Amino acid sequence: MTLLPHLAAICGWDQTHAGADCPGSDEVRFFKIDGGSLAAVDMETYKNLFYKAVKPSKRADYSCTVAKFKTARDVKTLLASKH
Question: What is the distance between the alpha carbons of residues 49 and 47, in angstroms, rounded to a whole number?
């Protein structure tokens, strides 16, 4: 059983850089509070849970990583589906 984080932060970008091939994807980061210190949780184990690869167009020969969530509620639902 994986322990859930004590604190989570969602970082989002509303605009895409004009020269970017892929839109900026929202990110979620988890942190553990241990005593008086804050430590980042390794997010590699959550990569497939929160993100997916999609082609930006049918003819593209590359994929972009996009978030499967938009809100904190979405993150909670995805976490609940894992456990």
Answer: 5
Residue range 4-27, pLDDT digits in tens? 557 777 777 666 555 567 877 788
Share of the chain above pLDDT 70, in %: 83
Q: How far apart are CA 41 and CA 29, in angstroms?
A: 7
CA distances from 16 to 25, 49, 52 (A): 9, 23, 18
Stated pTM of the model: 0.75
Residue 2 located in a structural domain: no
Residue 45 domain boundaries = 7-82
Structural domains of the chain, count: 1
